[in-house]
Amino acid sequence: MNNLDTTNPNNYEYLTKHLAIHILGGLKVTKLESLRVTVSVQKVKSNNIVRHSIDLYNDTQVEKFVRRLAERLEIGTSVVRKTLQELTHELENYRFLLLSKEEQENKPFYKELNASEEKEAIDFLKKGKLLTLTNEYIGKSGVIGEETNRLLMYLIFTSRKTNNPLHCISLGSSGAGKTHLQSKVAELIPEEDKVEITVLSANAFYYFNRTELQHKLILIEDLDGAESVLYPLRELQSKKRITKTVVHKDSKGTTKTIHLTVEGPVSVAGCTTQESIYEDNSNRSFLLYIDESEEQDNRIMHYQRRASAGKLNEQEEIDARELLKNIQRVLKPIKVINPYAEYLCLPSAVFKPRRTNSHYLQFINAITFYKQYQRKKQYDKTTGEEYIETTIEDIQEANELITEVLLRKSDTITGACRNYLERLKQYLQENNQTTFTNAEIRRNLRIKQSTLQRYQKQLLEEGYIKKTKGNKGQMYHYEIIDLNEYNALKDQINNALQECISKINLPT
To answer: Do 40 and 24 touch, CB atoms closer than 8 A?
Structure first.
């Protein structure tokens, strides 16, 4: 008969004909090699209680405790010994039940799609103008504005399922909506495929299970809060695995060296206001600059007002999110071959062309991967491996989406400084001016003095502006050297990308 009552998790009760035993504080399930408990034992219908902490797997301790109980409670040692043996057996069984329950609770959630959900997702992926349609649904899910960034981010997150995932960093001033954009797009990725991080210790990444992070999306809310793990993250991005050697003592006390290895690949996304500080991470990532325009402010505030007034179609947002998540679930690992890769050359203006070229080709592959249900499956004649091929349409769509990214990769100034310079150009054109003063710009563009000084210093050093007036003791005047330099750079990139398409279209 099972006499163990575990109704109260902090005070189990075990009753027999002769003894009443309480296990105080419950059971620990971390160390299976011992069964340490704190017990209070009393004889039935007696107020004489014996309390003791004991490891029920330690035979010496148990024997001493049996004699002590027999003496203090005036009961036979055979009765006490048998009761403790039965209690140990019951606690063992219950501990296994607790472990099984804990394992079930911590088991990763994997949603199994029913037939109608799977069909809906696959039918969606077979539709024409798939990227445009996907972008519409991302908007329906509650992501306001940021049409290019949100689609780029969704495709980058999708690439986690490939063997060469892409990564992104969202950049913008404080309060511009970097984290909001990342978290809203991340809501379109199944829960089982992402790991969200706020703060992580330096060695935490090495203690994941070997394949626990494979093909996962790692989301970092703020890179400033994860500074200690940026190095292993970079290694995971580049080498697709990280290894740490640690000293460990085995059960016999012998010191051994063991290797902790965590396998990738992973897709990493993070947010920061400080672009230059994370240059090593930026080199491995797509840089997405948040839209800080007045029009975007108005779109967001209009959405907030409608939400507050209860005029949003919340069910439509939920349905769009669920469909996009199910779309992610039906995408299967498959090799992508780009038969046009040899014709694709980056503009000469792009910095760090080797890594950027790799990102460009991987992004085209990500688009092809996303369109896998529209592609005929082919098989390698030598290995029999299944694959799909990139089309010219995939390359054209990639070029349209990636232009802004390549433009930023070709710029000699930081993104924040570039945004300031473009606002400055617009202000001067609207007011028919060619020169300006710091005081005037600070007042009209509403920029803090320290921030403005930082921008002006960078623009002077890189040769974008020059001093035109102002002797010692007088206010300096500045002038932009070339108003059209950014448009010229944009045209250069567009022409280079278009030239690639022209080469592909030439008859062989």
So the answer is: yes
